[in-house]
Write a structure and sequence with these properties.
CATH superfamily of one domain: Glutaredoxin
Number of strands: 21
CATH architecture of one domain: 3-Layer(aba) Sandwich
Shape: globular
Structural class: alpha+beta
Distance between the termini: 33 Å
CATH topology of one domain: Glutaredoxin
Number of helices: 27
Radius of gyration: 26 Å
CATH class of one domain: Alpha Beta
């Protein structure tokens, strides 16, 4: 397999010149003027802050948000609960809303026979996780919108995903489902109750983890499994649909580097190149879409999620550091440009997602007809259409085209009698013109809520990129976001809050909030040496262990001890599109142990991993962040302490470390004087003093340090063992 040279053009130099017109934007009334049920024009969702729930606030369905009011009404009126879970950028959620929830006939039936609850899965991942597991157990698959019917005491008895209003293509219509379940509720109540009891019992066992010893070869077994499932034509793993899974690629890059596995490195590079060349990457505005519906990475599901872009930013940054190839850095920088332009609020925090749909059509904002493309690209339109794979009949629906890199840029330039630089200059000019033409369209709606967990991942990703690229502006960007999150999304007693929209923060944090934010703080500390970030990472990690730890069976629960009681309290280690909280916690705790010298963190991380040991042994590829934590522990990196009086001299040592590829090492700074803050957190740094008052590096293994050195070359030689 040959990886073609990745020649790219970048849009990093320009931002959106036109005020965005967002799809679906409308004003809500002053909620204080409305009756408690929302009145004739609204339902109770008008009083919520979730963009997804607010999208349904004008439905004729008498929606309730999740809460005791709905369950008490269901019990009082002896009605089952209809639970609908989705998120604001979910295409099929919008379809089901339009077909059924905006329909008066469906709404009347629901309002008469059910109590209807709408949940934003991103605000309440605990609810979504439990009932999605139910759906997968009952149907063999899952997805959104998630449709669940349950008793007033929250026990499910029927589940599915999208239902059309009427019967279609062998799929029962929603009205038929509602009618059939109403009859069962009325005439076969005992059957429903027994189903609910059985499902709850099954969930209690299935969602607790499978403990066991972790095989010594688990990392190699995972790599071999990925190799067996590798698509050697288009990159990626498995068949369509293909998900980008940045955390998986970062794990494989670590294994490739540690084991000198050149085949594995080529596989990951091929995947990174093909994803970028395909339609999943927005070639005009930057950023990756959620997944590709086809094997070739051409046709995306057009929504853009913050977490996907954070994890992919990490992967492309890792690839740049391992290979030194400028193209990976350029992709990462363009991704950050997209995040700054379209996904960052005035406080420096990050929005959750952009929708796939605009003006009622998926992908409409992103695609071009041949005529639209030619009008924007002018005299070179023919050769540029060839470059971007533009077809007269379209390569997507309704004669539209998804832009992608359809040629080898070097061969394409030569075929047209110009140099590669000249060809790429024409591409860059075309991208600018197409971007400006697209900017005048109605933009997809924005889910502008701030999630602590997803922000933690993006903070980590930007801090890593800032270090790798020696970019102080990026480091400041990450540090500013971390400070804003800590200042706005915690209670006075230190409890982390999960969600903020506008100035309102709420919902006590879940395990993933604590783990992901701590992850981000560790990376910001290494990028800045701001001791406050390390201190807060320690505080959040300690609180995480207090709030979520399973004292009987080890591992960490998804919800805190004092959280709302659901039908089960789950533990999760599977890394899907998002890493699991347990996987991220294990990774954070192993890093903290090495940074602080407190090996109790390492012990707790090992307990977490063993709490899911049987799962890791059976399906190692399902928990690649947990494997990254194990890789970190087993590869025996260094603790590197820098010290000195002269900031510029210390900065030279730090720059050499930050721009190197050292994923198994940790880095700290001990000031020559006034070092109480860092020595209180990491006592082993107390004796790492500068030699002859000059900047000094201590390279330690297991907290036993080599003789101090004072030059970059000597330091790197100690680290590499040469």
């Amino acid at each position: 397999m040959r990886i073609r040279p990745l020649s790219i053009t970048t849009n990093c130099e320009y931002m959106n010149p036109i005020q965005k017109m967002r799809d679906g934007a409308f004003d809500y009334p002053d909620a204080s003027t409305l009756p408690t049920d929302g009145g004739p024009d609204f339902n109770r969702l008008v009083f919520t802050s979730s963009p997804y729930l607010l999208q349904h606030a004008r439905n004729p369905v008498d929606w309730f948000p999740w809460g005791e009011e709905a369950f008490e009404k269901a019990a009082r009126e002896d009605k089952p609960i209809f639970l609908s879970v989705g998120y604001s950028t979910c295409h099929w959620c919008h379809v089901m809303e339009h077909e059924s929830f905006e329909d008066r006939e469906v709404a009347d039936y629901l309002n008469q026979h059910y109590v209807s609850i709408k949940v934003d899965r991103e605000e309440r991942p605990d609810i979504d996780h439990i009932y999605m597991t139910v759906c997968q157990a009952m149907t063999g698959s899952g997805g959104w919108p998630l449709t669940v019917f349950m008793t007033p005491d929250k026990k499910p008895f029927f589940s599915g995903t999208y239902f059309p209003k009427d019967d279609r293509h062998g799929r029962p219509g929603f009205l038929r489902v509602l009618s059939a379940l109403h009859e069962v509720w009325r005439n076969e109540r005992n059957k429903i109750l027994s189903i609910g009891e059985e499902l709850q019992s099954q969930l209690a066992g299935a969602m607790q983890g499978q403990p066991g010893e972790i095989p010594d070869d688990v990392l190699d077994r995972a790599v071999q499994s990925f190799k067996r499932n590798y698509d050697d034509v288009f990159g990626g793993f498995g068949a369509a649909p293909k998900f980008p899974m940045g955390h998986m690629l970062s794990f494989l890059l670590r294994r490739a580097s540690a084991t000198a596995d050149h085949e594995l490195l080529r596989m990951v590079e091929h995947t990174l190149v093909r994803m970028y060349r395909g339609g999943m990457w927005d070639h005009l505005g930057g950023g990756f879409c959620r997944y590709s519906v086809d094997r070739k990475w051409l046709v995306p599901h057009f929504e853009k999620m913050l977490y996907d872009n954070a994890l992919l930013l990490m992967a492309y940054t890792d690839a740049f550091q391992i290979t030194g190839k400028a193209a990976y850095r350029a992709i990462a920088e363009e991704l950050i440009t997209y995040v700054r332009r379209d996904m960052t609020d005035a406080r420096g925090l990050f929005y959750s997602a952009e929708n796939a749909d605009s003006e009622g059509e998926e992908g409409r904002f992103y695609v071009f007809t041949k005529a639209e493309f030619d009008a924007a690209t002018g005299e070179h339109g023919g050769m540029l259409a060839e470059y971007f794979g533009i077809e007269a009949a379209g390569n997507f629906e309704h004669g539209k085209n998804i832009l992608h890199i359809a040629v080898d840029p070097q061969e394409w330039s030569a075929r047209h009698g110009i140099t590669l630089d000249e060809g790429l200059a024409r591409v860059a000019e075309a991208k600018r013109a197409l971007f400006e033409a697209r900017a005048r369209r109605i933009h997809p709606s924005l889910d502008d809520k701030i999630l602590a967990s997803w922000n933690g991942l993006m903070i980590a990703a930007i801090a890593q990129a800032g270090q790798a690229f020696d970019d102080s502006a990026l480091i400041a960007f990450a540090a500013g976001a971390a400070d804003a999150l800590l200042g706005l999304m915690r209670t006075p007693d230190g409890t982390l809050l999960h969600r903020m929209r506008g100035d309102e923060a709420g919902i006590p944090g879940f395990l993933e909030d604590y783990a992901f934010v701590a992850w981000g703080l560790l990376d910001v500390y290494e990028a800045t040496f701001g001791t406050r970030f390390l201190r807060q990472a320690v505080a959040l990690s300690d609180r995480m262990l207090t709030l979520f730890h399973d004292d009987e069976n080890a591992g960490l629960f998804f919800t805190a001890h004092d959280a709302e009681a659901l039908i089960v309290r789950s533990k999760e280690s599977h890394d899907g599109a998002l890493p699991s909280g347990n996987s991220a916690a294990a990774y954070v705790l192993m890093r903290l142990a090495r940074m602080t010298g407190d090996m109790s963190y390492d012990q707790r991380a090992g307990e977490i991993a063993r709490a899911f040991g049987a799962q890791l042994a059976q399906h190692p590829t399902g928990s690649t962040v947990m494997l990254t934590a194990l890789h970190f522990a087993r590869e025996q990196g260094q603790e590197i302490v820098l010290t000195g009086h002269d900031p510029a001299a210390v900065a030279d040592l730090a720059r050499a470390l930050r721009t190197a590829w050292l994923p198994q090492s940790v880095m700290l700074f001990r000031p020559a004087v006034h070092a109480d803050d860092i020595t209180a957190i990491a006592p082993y740094t107390a004796t790492t003093l500068p030699i002859n008052d000059e900047a000094t590096a201590y390279v330690c293994h297991g907290f036993a340090c080599e003789l101090p050195v004072q030059s970059v070359d000597e330091m790197l030689a100690l680290i590499s063992g040469t």
